[in-house]
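Write out the 3D structure for:
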Amino acid sequence: MGLDCSHDAFHGAYSAFNSFRQEICHAIGGSYPPHWVRNADGTITLDNNGLPIYDRTLDEKMIYFGDDLDDESGMYFFLCHSDCDGEISPEMCIKVADDLESILPKIEALSDQGRGHIQARGGYAEVLKKFIAGCRLAAKNNEPLEFH
């Protein structure tokens, strides 16, 4: 089981989509749960046993968006959308694609290219490009991007 989005936008484990959104949120200066402590290069800080370190000062039920994120923006909608059902309207797909495309250079510069489904699909930048293309295709066809 996992998340399947229409228009070939994303196919993979829910944990992979969560990791994807963590990286997107980090790229805009925010933090998406679970809130990892990060090194200067953006990689997740590990303890002496090789386990990720959590930032326990942040509420695990909250998404921290960084500076100046409008709750009407495509980025806000992308980060807050359910990861297992629902849809993104064609109009919102355009906003989501535009906002995600604006941070593509930051994602391309990441030294961490993910694990599992993310790594198998070429890393965060390639997954992002595919999600953007899926949003644009849905909008072009005047169809919602569906999450299953």
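The beta strands are 3-4, 11-12, 87-88, 145-146.
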